[in-house]
Write a structure and sequence with these properties.
By secondary structure, this protein is α/β, with parallel strands linked by helices. The chain contains 29 helices and 17 strands. Helix content is about 45%, strand content about 15%. Mean pLDDT is about 90; it is low at about 515-520.
Length: about 625
């Protein structure tokens, strides 16, 4: 195998016909011994960039990956392809460890996955120094960044690789890293002499939608019912308690919803993760403890019921949907309460002030994204330094343009109300004041005598709520939890108060009435069928292939996608191979998979020819 070219390996082992994007350049660069930083969106195909060089260069490729729980699936997927690989981590029994060591010494491994803490152990390094190494691949490399959202202290210590193994190429890979983080990765891992391969960030198959929180559970239900019944998805919540509550309520509504958080018993946790990976139609309701490194390619939706911490975190979490390139959804419900919740979380954390300031800035960028009236995708891509088209036609603001209105007067009234009352009251109090609803407290503080009292009568309470929310999200009003929910003015509000700057509000959509909600269709019975499969016989055949895959996966206790991805099954329906040679033309069928599964799937396809003979419904 070591004498084959990269392209031969791609075709023979992985069963793909061509490289994508920068893959070929990266792979050749690493094969020739160069260091590299690779930034590519999730699903773009980063793994091949180190897997193929590991197979071609002499020696074993060592892959540093942060999550042990998922190494098993990665190793299994490679073994199915006939690649010799193993994992070394704390989940290994002493016997397994000895076996891996023996394989290393015998030089029979192409790839070795290790957890960072294991790699840092003295004995591991001693062992690695005695065997030929092809390369080091550092996956999820943004974890080295101290200012990033996934900082892992062990990753910082990976700077020893350059010292202890100066001649072994290092390739660092991640899906999310802004410019400063990229620099940090390069510095930490000493990639200065290497090359940077920065791919685009766009995930065109993911559609983005953000709704205003108004009865969260009903909104979530409405969203989930629109998804096909065999779709897997993740619902993210901030607190452990909330994951359990929502999972429970979804179960009552007939969904297969499983909670997942760091506080659950580890056997329950891994059972839930396994069910998510292996069954169809499972929804995991999780804290962000769930998901990093999850390679499941057919996650069809990611729903956030609370604000993520930053655009980076949001993009990474939503990026877990649709790795297979088929259509997927990212949904987020957000409201004013989320802003103060996140602010207070940052303020009450034990981080140093500099870090808190960074976190507040990152949150502000995310709020800007939530409130934008522009194309969501364009806002994200600009944040990552790209120059995208103005519209993507695959996000809520493109598909249902948001009306805006110029609101200098309203913005000034809201800001004055805060100022005149001494910057210590919450939104509800100020809204009553502006609308001229005098409560005993207003009387007590003499605020019903203020000149602005009742000056905002013409707008409803809901409208004022929206005005305050947007001014807070824009950073003109501070809702500091240390101020007990009281609102105060930020420096940036001055030009508005002076009338030097205008403020454009987004028109929030009308609230749906509960009667309308009832009419929503239940979760569609129809299974997820890709658009490329047009006719009924094609769809039936696709279902048959899926059934065969499920049965084979069950037999071996592996996730179905480890056998074949949905895309490969779709391609089988389209290519309709009738023998082994034709089967190799299907994308995702290489030699090893052909040997293992070719016959089984060819039989299903042959039976499908009879179905095809039926008159088409279209
Ligand atoms: P990433 O690690 O960047 O998120 P993966 O390496 O998991 O992405 O690849 C995403 C999917 O794309 C996988 O199913 C992989 O097999 C597939 N893939 C990668 N490269 C190619 C290619 N050149 N042609 C077809 N499919 C590919
Ligand atoms: Zn758009």
């Amino acid at each position: 195998m070591k004498t084959e070219s990269a392209l031969q390996t791609l075709q023979g082992v992985f069963g793909y016909s061509d490289f994508r994007g920068d893959q070929h350049r990266i792979i050749n660069h690493v094969i020739e011994g160069g260091d590299a930083l690779v930034i590519m969106p999730t699903g773009a195909g980063k793994s091949l960039c180190y897997q193929i060089p590991s197979m071609i260069r002499p020696g074993v490729g060592v892959v540093v990956s942060p999550l042990i729980a998922l190494m098993r699936d990665q190793v299994e997927a490679l073994r199915q392809l006939g690649v010799s690989c193993a994992a070394l981590n704390s989940a290994c029994t002493p016997e397994e460890k000895r076996e891996v060591e023996a394989q290393l010494r015998a030089g029979t491994l192409d790839l070795l996955y290790v957890a960072p803490e294991r790699l840092l152990l003295e004995p591991t390094q001693e062992l690695l120094k005695t065997v030929p190494l092809a390369l080091f691949a550092i996956d999820e490399a943004h974890c080295v960044s101290q200012w990033g959202h996934d900082f892992r202290p062990e990753y910082m210590q990976l700077d020893m690789l350059a010292e202890s193994f100066p001649d072994i190429p290092r390739i660092a890979l991640t899906a999310t890293a802004d410019q400063p983080t990229q620099n940090e990765i390069v510095e930490r891992l000493h990639l200065g002499r290497g090359e940077r391969f920065i791919g685009g960030f766009d995930r065109p198959n993911i559609s983005y939608e953000i709704v205003l929180k108004q009865g969260l559970f009903q909104q979530l239900l409405q969203f989930l019912r629109k998804q096909e019944s065999n779709s897997s998805g993740i619902v993210y919540c901030l607190s452990r308690k909330k994951t359990e509550e929502i999972a429970h309520k979804l179960q009552e509504e007939g969904f297969t919803a499983l909670p997942y958080h760091a506080g659950l018993d580890s056997t329950i946790r891994s059972r839930h993760q396994d069910r998510f990976l292996q069954e169809e139609g499972v929804i995991v309701v999780a804290t962000i403890a769930f998901g990093m490194g999850i390679d499941k390619p057919d996650v069809r939706f990611v729903a956030h019921t609370d604000l993520p911490k930053s655009v980076e975190a949001y993009y990474q979490e939503t990026g877990r949907a649709g790795r297979d390139g088929l259509p997927a959804k990212a949904w987020l419900a957000y409201g004013m309460g989320d802003i103060s919740q996140m602010r207070s979380m940052i303020d009450s954390s034990e981080s140093e002030p500099r870090r808190k300031a960074v976190e507040h800035r990152k949150l502000n960028a995310l709020l800007g994204y939530c409130e934008t009236v522009k194309c969501r995708r364009s806002v994200i891509l600009k944040y990552f330094g790209e120059t995208p088209p103005e519209r993507c036609e695959n996000c809520d603001t493109c598909l249902q343009p948001v009306a805006t209105w110029e609101g200098l007067r309203e913005a000034q009234l809201a800001l004055s109300a805060i100022y005149r009352t001494g910057q210590r009251f919450g939104a509800a109090y100020l809204i009553d004041l502006l609308r001229g609803n005098a409560t005993p407290r207003h009387e007590q503080f003499g605020h019903s005598q203020l000149q602005i009292f009742g000056m905002g009568k013409e707008r409803s309470q809901r409208e004022w709520h929206s005005i305050f929310r947007q001014l807070i999200a824009a950073g003109h009003i501070t809702n500091d939890i240390a101020n007990f929910g009281g609102l105060s003015l930020a420096e940036s509000s001055k030009p508005i108060l002076k009338g030097e700057e205008n403020f454009t509000f987004r028109q929030d959509p009308e609230r749906k009435h509960s009667r309308e909600r009832k009419r929503d269709t239940p979760r569609e019975k129809r299974a997820f069928v890709p658009e490329t499969l047009r006719s009924e016989p094609e769809r039936l055949l696709y279902e048959e292939l899926r059934k065969k895959r499920t049965a084979l996966a069950k037999e071996q206790g592996v996730p179905p996608y480890v056998i074949f991805h949905d895309k490969t099954l779709i391609d089988m329906v389209l290519v309709r191979p009738s023998n082994e040679t034709e089967m190799l033309e299907v994308s995702g069928v290489g030699e090893s998979k052909l040997k293992r599964y070719g016959k089984a799937f060819l039989e299903v396809l042959a039976a499908g020819e009879e179905i095809r003979a039926l008159p088409s419904s279209e």
